[in-house]
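Structure ticket #2291
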Amino acid sequence: MVNNLEYFQSIEMKKQEIELADGSVIESLGHGTIQLKCKNIILTFSNTLYIPSIATNLISMATFLKTHHIIKILNMDKFEVIDQEIKQIVTGSIASGNLNLYYSPKELSVSTAPRNLITLHQAAGHPSLEYFCKMFPNQNIPQLHCITCST
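Resolution: structure written out below.
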């Protein structure tokens, strides 16, 4: 989800209501492909929603993982997204739930909100332990005790 029409390489303008995880509904004005110039790579994301009413741009952790990027936790306050050649793509700090994308043509950074592994698990959408370990390969995650999903 992005809030700026200038990020789109191509877009189909079509209004639709989007229900968020908390049950609230926002309006998307279209969807398309965005291209973001990062430190060592140009990232292309298809099926991106254009929602001008959101305060920050959001990219899910799964989006990076599907493109074979690794989310490396540096400590409980900072992380970086790296590619298969261990080149840093973006960095971030712990701040608000999903991967929040703050992007301008000159700068790209990402932040996320978890304060511990359970919060990180919840922010990632309650993935299985196996998938969660793949998302964060540099973390020692022997087990999780999530009340919501019994993981």
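Closing remark: Strands lie at 8-19, 25-37, 42-50, 57-59, 70-75, 78-82, 88-94, 99-104, 107-112.
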